[in-house]
């Protein structure tokens, strides 16, 4: 199965952006089970899981700030949390077995 979707979040001159949302990719490596479950629960409220420790989230700036603050409260010295804020034109092509998200992922 192949799935393509495009995010365009960059505001164009003389055009109002239809959405202030942008794509965020969050990956983590947390050894503590309780902490890892809390992080997954937070991320599920903003997006969907694409792998066991990776989420794609479609958020606005306000939600991004809150999400990041909530996540950083849980991350310890020995943990790894990477947040990729993709706020320009992003094209994603997925090959293989994948769940198609409920939302329409085409933004202009």
Label this structure with key terms.
108 residues, alpha+beta, two-stranded antiparallel sheet, globular
Summarize this, please?
The protein is of the alpha+beta class and 108 residues long. Helices cover 22% and strands 35% of the residues. It has 2 helices and 6 strands.
Q: Characterize the main sheet.
A: 4 strands, antiparallel
Instruction: Give the termini distance in whole angstroms.
Output: 25 Å
CATH T-level topology? Alpha-Beta Plaits
| Approximate helicity band | 10-25%
Instruction: Work out the helix count.
Output: 2
Question: Going across the major beta sheet, what is the strand order?
Answer: 3-4-2-5
Provide the CATH architecture. Answer: 2-Layer Sandwich
Structural class: alpha+beta
Form type: globular
Number of domains: 1
**Name of the CATH first level:** Alpha Beta
Overall average pLDDT: 79
Radius of gyration: 15 Å
The percentage of residues in β strands lies in 35-45%
Number of strands: 6
Q: Name the poorly predicted regions.
A: 9-16, 102-108
Q: H/E element string?
A: EEHEEHEE
Write the SSE topology:
Elements: E1 2-7, E2 22-29, H1 33-44, E3 47-51, E4 54-59, H2 61-72, E5 80-86, E6 90-95
Antiparallel strand pairs: 1-6, 2-4, 2-5, 3-4
Describe the structure.
- The chain is of the alpha+beta class.
- The chain has one domain: 2-Layer Sandwich (Alpha-Beta Plaits).
- The protein has helices at residues 33-44, 61-72, and strands at 2-7, 22-29, 47-51, 54-59, 80-86, 90-95.
- It has a 4-stranded antiparallel sheet, covered by helices on one side. It has a two-stranded antiparallel sheet with strand order 1-6.
- Strand 3 and strand 4 (54-59) form a beta hairpin.
- The protein is globular.
- The model is unreliable at 9-16 and 102-108 (pLDDT under 50).
